[in-house]
Amino acid sequence: MKKFNSAVRVIAILAVVLVAKYVFAGPPLTNLEGVGGIAFNPLAYLADSGEDAGLKIDGKKVASKPRIGSWYVNLSDVKVDWTAIGIADTFFDRLEVSYGYETVNPENSKSIHKHNIGAKLLVLKENSFDTNYVPAVSVGAIFKQTSNVGAGSDDTGADYYGVATKLITSLPRPVLISGGLLSTKAKATGVFGYDKDSKLTGFGNIDIIFPLGLIAGFEYKQGADYSDWKDANYWNTHVAWTANNNLTIVLALVNAGDYKSTSEVGLGNGFVSSIQYAF
């Protein structure tokens, strides 16, 4: 309960800034690691606040206004509270820089603290070459450091990824589709430390955009398979409500693998809530 109250305080602090004027909300969210994406995964889209928002020099936009997000994850099967807060900003309409902080609180063990520093480069803008079918394509890296990882694992590591994202508008409702490849050394995203070797995994998202600011979707993240450690595959189903041009609220059900499995490391089922903010 103490950890939950801490998460509530974080959300309350974020809510204070609602008195300001904002420009754009909705995807990409600031994900659990601070990167512009959904919950687990990055999107190719940058954490941008729109053409007319941010710092301009000689009429050219240098920096966007930032996005911030907080997350609370309750993994009831393994009795873990997981909270995160992140911030992301975009420079020159091409480079996203982000920071995310996570604290993972098992019921009868030491808290784990994780820091994530991210950089994402937009290689190809959506609908380039005067088309309506080319996806946005980005590459990125996330440098991570984790406390209390225990013996046998490194406490630092890095993820590298490539991702393509496309908003399809020719269907009855707009549909956002995204997928990519991730090179990682992280065990359970880095919560349990980092392996010596990198493994290539896949990830994907699909979200349908409904009237009244409602979004519903599905997210998948493949678990890495190291020589002495195999992560479970993660997935979630989520709904989001973009209340106005600034505020997005997210609720999700997450499956992080069978926590009783002897062949892979799973963290069980749980629920997720998030509040997101676009300045």
Quick tags:
52% strand; mainly beta; 12-stranded antiparallel beta barrel; globular; 279 residues
Global Rg: 18 Å
Outline: globular
How many angstroms separate the termini? Answer: 31 Å
Q: Which structural category do the helix and sheet elements fall into?
A: mainly beta
How would you characterize this protein structure?
This protein has 279 residues and is mainly beta. The protein contains one helix and 16 strands. The strands form three sheets. It has a twelve-stranded antiparallel beta barrel. Strands 1-2 form a two-stranded antiparallel ribbon. It has a two-stranded antiparallel ribbon with strand order 3-4. A hairpin with a 5-residue loop joins strand 7 and strand 8 (112-124). It is globular and about 55 Å long. It starts with a helix and ends with a strand.
Condensed summary:
The chain is mainly beta and 279 residues long.
Chain-wise SSE layout:
Elements lengths: L1 H15 L12 E2 L5 E2 L17 E3 L2 E4 L3 E9 L4 E12 L3 E12 L5 E13 L11 E11 L9 E13 L6 E12 L7 E16 L4 E8 L12 E9 L4 E9 L13 E10 L1
Antiparallel strand pairs: 1-2, 3-4, 5-6, 5-16, 6-7, 7-8, 8-9, 9-10, 10-11, 11-12, 12-13, 13-14, 14-15, 15-16
